[in-house]
Amino acid sequence: MNLDLLIMNGYGVYVWSAFSFTLFNFFILYKVTIRQFDKEHAKFSKKYKSLNSQQITLAHKQSTNRTFVRTVAHKI
Question: Does pTM top 0.70 for this prediction?
Answer without folding.
Answer: no
